[in-house]
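Thread title: Can someone regenerate the structure for this chain?

I was given the following input by a collaborator and told the matching C-alpha coordinates would be attached. They weren't. Posting the sequence so someone can regenerate them.
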Amino acid sequence: MAFRCTKAPKDPVATLAYHPWDMAIDAFQVSPRTWYVSGQTWVGAYLIETSEGCILIDTAIPESAYMLVNGIYQSGHKPSDIKKILLSHAHFDHCGAAALMQHLTGAELWMSKEDWEFYQKVPEETLVLDKDSHPQDFKVDHFYSDDTPVTLGDISIRTMLTPGHTIGCTSFFWEEVNPADGKTYTVAMHGGVGANTMNDQYYSTSKMLTPALRDRFFADEAKLEAMHVDIALPSHPNQIEIVDRAGQYTNENNIYYDETVWADFIRERVRQVKALM
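Best answer:
Regenerated them for you:
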Protein backbone atom coordinates (compact mmCIF):
# COMPACT_ATOMS: atom_id res chain seq x y z
CA MET A 1 0.00 0.00 0.00
CA ALA A 2 1.95 3.02 -1.21
CA PHE A 3 1.47 6.26 0.71
CA ARG A 4 -1.20 8.61 -0.58
CA CYS A 5 -3.02 11.49 1.10
CA THR A 6 -6.19 13.17 -0.11
CA LYS A 7 -8.02 16.43 0.57
CA ALA A 8 -9.84 16.82 3.86
CA PRO A 9 -13.65 16.83 3.56
CA LYS A 10 -15.46 20.15 3.46
CA ASP A 11 -17.62 21.13 6.46
CA PRO A 12 -17.38 17.71 8.15
CA VAL A 13 -19.03 18.68 11.44
CA ALA A 14 -22.10 20.16 9.77
CA THR A 15 -22.24 17.13 7.48
CA LEU A 16 -22.22 14.70 10.41
CA ALA A 17 -24.75 16.81 12.30
CA TYR A 18 -27.29 17.32 9.50
CA HIS A 19 -26.70 14.81 6.67
CA PRO A 20 -24.36 12.15 8.06
CA TRP A 21 -25.20 9.64 5.34
CA ASP A 22 -22.85 11.59 3.07
CA MET A 23 -19.91 10.45 5.21
CA ALA A 24 -21.14 7.08 6.44
CA ILE A 25 -18.99 3.98 6.02
CA ASP A 26 -19.20 0.45 7.33
CA ALA A 27 -16.56 -0.83 9.72
CA PHE A 28 -13.59 -2.43 7.98
CA GLN A 29 -10.56 -4.41 9.08
CA VAL A 30 -7.09 -2.85 8.69
CA SER A 31 -4.84 -5.43 10.37
CA PRO A 32 -5.11 -8.86 12.02
CA ARG A 33 -6.58 -7.45 15.24
CA THR A 34 -7.71 -3.90 14.38
CA TRP A 35 -10.86 -2.44 12.83
CA TYR A 36 -11.76 1.04 11.63
CA VAL A 37 -15.06 1.60 13.45
CA SER A 38 -15.84 5.34 13.52
CA GLY A 39 -18.64 4.83 11.01
CA GLN A 40 -17.69 7.97 9.07
CA THR A 41 -14.88 9.13 6.83
CA TRP A 42 -13.74 12.30 8.58
CA VAL A 43 -12.01 11.16 11.76
CA GLY A 44 -10.86 7.67 12.63
CA ALA A 45 -11.63 5.46 15.61
CA TYR A 46 -9.99 2.04 15.90
CA LEU A 47 -11.05 -1.07 17.79
CA ILE A 48 -8.24 -3.45 18.78
CA GLU A 49 -9.10 -7.01 19.74
CA THR A 50 -7.23 -8.54 22.69
CA SER A 51 -7.57 -11.78 24.65
CA GLU A 52 -9.37 -9.89 27.44
CA GLY A 53 -11.64 -7.52 25.55
CA CYS A 54 -11.14 -4.55 23.26
CA ILE A 55 -9.28 -1.25 23.23
CA LEU A 56 -10.84 1.76 21.49
CA ILE A 57 -8.62 4.53 20.14
CA ASP A 58 -10.50 7.86 19.90
CA THR A 59 -14.24 8.50 19.85
CA ALA A 60 -14.90 11.28 17.30
CA ILE A 61 -17.81 13.64 18.03
CA PRO A 62 -21.15 13.05 19.80
CA GLU A 63 -23.07 13.65 16.58
CA SER A 64 -21.47 10.54 15.06
CA ALA A 65 -21.38 8.41 18.22
CA TYR A 66 -24.26 6.21 17.02
CA MET A 67 -22.23 5.53 13.86
CA LEU A 68 -19.29 4.52 16.06
CA VAL A 69 -21.49 2.17 18.10
CA ASN A 70 -22.83 0.65 14.90
CA GLY A 71 -19.27 0.21 13.65
CA ILE A 72 -18.35 -1.63 16.85
CA TYR A 73 -21.22 -4.05 16.28
CA GLN A 74 -20.28 -4.43 12.61
CA SER A 75 -16.78 -5.51 13.69
CA GLY A 76 -18.32 -8.41 15.60
CA HIS A 77 -18.10 -6.81 19.04
CA LYS A 78 -20.36 -4.87 21.39
CA PRO A 79 -19.68 -1.74 23.47
CA SER A 80 -19.37 -3.72 26.72
CA ASP A 81 -16.38 -5.55 25.19
CA ILE A 82 -14.37 -2.31 25.37
CA LYS A 83 -12.23 -2.13 28.51
CA LYS A 84 -9.93 0.81 27.71
CA ILE A 85 -10.47 3.98 25.67
CA LEU A 86 -7.30 5.78 24.57
CA LEU A 87 -7.52 9.40 23.42
CA SER A 88 -4.89 10.69 21.02
CA HIS A 89 -5.32 14.37 21.89
CA ALA A 90 -7.66 16.96 23.34
CA HIS A 91 -9.44 18.24 20.23
CA PHE A 92 -13.20 17.69 20.13
CA ASP A 93 -13.13 15.68 16.90
CA HIS A 94 -11.13 12.95 18.67
CA CYS A 95 -12.51 13.14 22.21
CA GLY A 96 -15.92 14.79 21.84
CA ALA A 97 -17.82 11.55 22.44
CA ALA A 98 -15.45 10.33 25.17
CA ALA A 99 -17.91 10.87 28.02
CA LEU A 100 -20.72 9.14 26.14
CA MET A 101 -18.53 6.14 25.24
CA GLN A 102 -17.08 5.92 28.74
CA HIS A 103 -20.56 5.72 30.27
CA LEU A 104 -21.82 3.33 27.60
CA THR A 105 -18.90 0.90 27.89
CA GLY A 106 -17.73 1.31 31.49
CA ALA A 107 -14.19 1.44 30.11
CA GLU A 108 -11.17 3.19 31.61
CA LEU A 109 -10.39 6.50 29.91
CA TRP A 110 -6.76 7.33 29.12
CA MET A 111 -5.09 10.55 27.93
CA SER A 112 -1.80 12.39 28.28
CA LYS A 113 -1.46 14.54 31.38
CA GLU A 114 -0.33 17.41 29.17
CA ASP A 115 -3.48 17.44 27.07
CA TRP A 116 -5.71 16.88 30.09
CA GLU A 117 -4.34 20.13 31.49
CA PHE A 118 -4.69 21.81 28.08
CA TYR A 119 -8.33 20.71 27.91
CA GLN A 120 -9.04 21.90 31.47
CA LYS A 121 -7.45 25.31 31.02
CA VAL A 122 -8.48 26.19 27.46
CA PRO A 123 -11.73 24.48 26.46
CA GLU A 124 -12.25 27.05 23.72
CA GLU A 125 -9.15 25.64 21.95
CA THR A 126 -9.91 21.98 22.61
CA LEU A 127 -13.49 20.84 23.23
CA VAL A 128 -15.62 23.81 22.22
CA LEU A 129 -14.57 24.51 18.65
CA ASP A 130 -17.65 24.19 16.45
CA LYS A 131 -21.24 25.41 16.82
CA ASP A 132 -22.63 22.22 15.26
CA SER A 133 -21.01 19.83 17.74
CA HIS A 134 -21.96 19.47 21.39
CA PRO A 135 -19.25 17.48 23.20
CA GLN A 136 -19.75 16.48 26.81
CA ASP A 137 -17.26 17.12 29.58
CA PHE A 138 -15.29 14.00 30.53
CA LYS A 139 -12.91 12.87 33.25
CA VAL A 140 -9.73 10.87 32.70
CA ASP A 141 -8.94 7.76 34.73
CA HIS A 142 -5.27 7.30 33.77
CA PHE A 143 -2.43 9.21 32.18
CA TYR A 144 0.05 7.76 29.70
CA SER A 145 3.70 7.12 30.44
CA ASP A 146 6.12 6.52 27.59
CA ASP A 147 7.94 4.09 29.88
CA THR A 148 4.91 1.93 30.65
CA PRO A 149 2.72 0.46 27.90
CA VAL A 150 -1.04 0.28 28.14
CA THR A 151 -1.77 -3.45 28.30
CA LEU A 152 -4.95 -5.44 27.93
CA GLY A 153 -4.66 -9.20 27.61
CA ASP A 154 -2.12 -10.09 24.94
CA ILE A 155 -1.84 -6.59 23.41
CA SER A 156 0.48 -3.90 24.79
CA ILE A 157 0.30 -0.42 23.29
CA ARG A 158 3.42 1.71 23.60
CA THR A 159 2.60 5.39 23.86
CA MET A 160 4.87 8.20 22.72
CA LEU A 161 4.37 11.86 23.51
CA THR A 162 4.50 13.62 20.12
CA PRO A 163 3.57 17.26 20.73
CA GLY A 164 3.04 19.80 18.01
CA HIS A 165 -0.59 19.63 16.98
CA THR A 166 -1.39 19.89 20.69
CA ILE A 167 0.74 20.00 23.83
CA GLY A 168 0.08 16.38 24.76
CA CYS A 169 -0.59 14.72 21.43
CA THR A 170 0.16 10.99 21.85
CA SER A 171 1.06 8.35 19.26
CA PHE A 172 0.47 4.62 19.61
CA PHE A 173 2.51 1.56 18.61
CA TRP A 174 1.60 -2.10 19.06
CA GLU A 175 2.34 -5.57 17.68
CA GLU A 176 -0.09 -8.06 16.18
CA VAL A 177 0.51 -11.60 14.97
CA ASN A 178 -1.10 -12.57 11.68
CA PRO A 179 -2.71 -15.99 12.18
CA ALA A 180 -2.42 -16.73 8.46
CA ASP A 181 1.38 -16.75 8.35
CA GLY A 182 2.57 -16.28 11.95
CA LYS A 183 4.31 -12.97 11.13
CA THR A 184 4.38 -10.15 13.68
CA TYR A 185 3.41 -6.70 12.41
CA THR A 186 4.03 -3.35 14.07
CA VAL A 187 0.95 -1.16 13.80
CA ALA A 188 1.06 2.57 14.55
CA MET A 189 -1.15 5.65 14.65
CA HIS A 190 0.32 9.12 15.01
CA GLY A 191 -1.70 11.13 17.49
CA GLY A 192 -2.14 14.25 15.38
CA VAL A 193 -0.33 16.03 12.58
CA GLY A 194 -2.66 18.90 11.69
CA ALA A 195 -0.77 21.94 10.46
CA ASN A 196 -3.76 24.12 11.38
CA THR A 197 -2.39 24.54 14.92
CA MET A 198 1.28 24.81 13.96
CA ASN A 199 1.41 28.15 12.18
CA ASP A 200 2.17 31.69 13.29
CA GLN A 201 -1.41 32.91 12.82
CA TYR A 202 -2.68 30.28 15.26
CA TYR A 203 0.09 30.98 17.77
CA SER A 204 -0.81 34.68 17.75
CA THR A 205 -4.19 33.88 19.32
CA SER A 206 -3.55 30.69 21.28
CA LYS A 207 -3.41 30.85 25.06
CA MET A 208 -1.08 27.85 25.46
CA LEU A 209 0.38 26.73 22.13
CA THR A 210 3.66 28.34 21.06
CA PRO A 211 6.22 27.95 18.23
CA ALA A 212 8.27 25.78 20.59
CA LEU A 213 5.76 22.99 19.97
CA ARG A 214 6.36 23.26 16.23
CA ASP A 215 10.09 23.09 16.88
CA ARG A 216 9.52 19.91 18.88
CA PHE A 217 7.44 18.49 16.01
CA PHE A 218 10.34 19.08 13.63
CA ALA A 219 12.88 17.71 16.12
CA ASP A 220 10.92 14.47 16.43
CA GLU A 221 10.89 13.93 12.65
CA ALA A 222 14.07 11.89 12.35
CA LYS A 223 13.24 9.74 15.37
CA LEU A 224 9.73 8.99 14.14
CA GLU A 225 10.76 8.49 10.55
CA ALA A 226 13.33 5.88 11.58
CA MET A 227 10.84 3.79 13.54
CA HIS A 228 9.83 0.53 11.93
CA VAL A 229 6.09 0.41 11.21
CA ASP A 230 4.44 -2.22 9.03
CA ILE A 231 0.90 -0.85 9.04
CA ALA A 232 0.49 2.93 9.40
CA LEU A 233 -2.98 4.11 10.41
CA PRO A 234 -4.18 7.72 10.14
CA SER A 235 -6.12 9.62 12.78
CA HIS A 236 -7.95 11.19 9.83
CA PRO A 237 -8.34 8.76 6.94
CA ASN A 238 -7.51 11.35 4.30
CA GLN A 239 -4.02 11.80 5.81
CA ILE A 240 -3.11 8.24 4.84
CA GLU A 241 -5.67 7.02 2.32
CA ILE A 242 -7.21 3.80 3.62
CA VAL A 243 -10.89 4.16 2.77
CA ASP A 244 -10.26 3.30 -0.89
CA ARG A 245 -9.48 -0.27 0.22
CA ALA A 246 -12.27 -0.61 2.78
CA GLY A 247 -13.59 -4.14 3.01
CA GLN A 248 -10.72 -5.70 1.03
CA TYR A 249 -8.45 -6.74 3.91
CA THR A 250 -7.94 -10.40 4.76
CA ASN A 251 -5.18 -11.99 6.80
CA GLU A 252 -4.06 -13.68 3.58
CA ASN A 253 -4.24 -10.40 1.62
CA ASN A 254 -2.83 -7.76 3.96
CA ILE A 255 -3.46 -4.76 1.73
CA TYR A 256 -2.45 -2.17 4.34
CA TYR A 257 0.99 -3.66 4.88
CA ASP A 258 3.78 -1.42 3.56
CA GLU A 259 6.94 -0.59 5.51
CA THR A 260 7.47 2.65 3.55
CA VAL A 261 4.16 4.38 4.32
CA TRP A 262 4.99 5.55 7.86
CA ALA A 263 8.19 7.40 6.91
CA ASP A 264 6.60 8.92 3.80
CA PHE A 265 3.67 10.10 5.93
CA ILE A 266 5.93 11.75 8.53
CA ARG A 267 7.96 13.52 5.83
CA GLU A 268 4.82 14.78 4.08
CA ARG A 269 3.31 16.21 7.27
CA VAL A 270 6.56 18.01 8.12
CA ARG A 271 6.59 19.43 4.59
CA GLN A 272 3.02 20.69 5.01
CA VAL A 273 3.78 22.37 8.33
CA LYS A 274 6.87 24.07 6.90
CA ALA A 275 4.87 25.24 3.88
CA LEU A 276 2.57 27.20 6.22
CA MET A 277 5.40 28.94 8.07
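The chain has one domain: 12-275.
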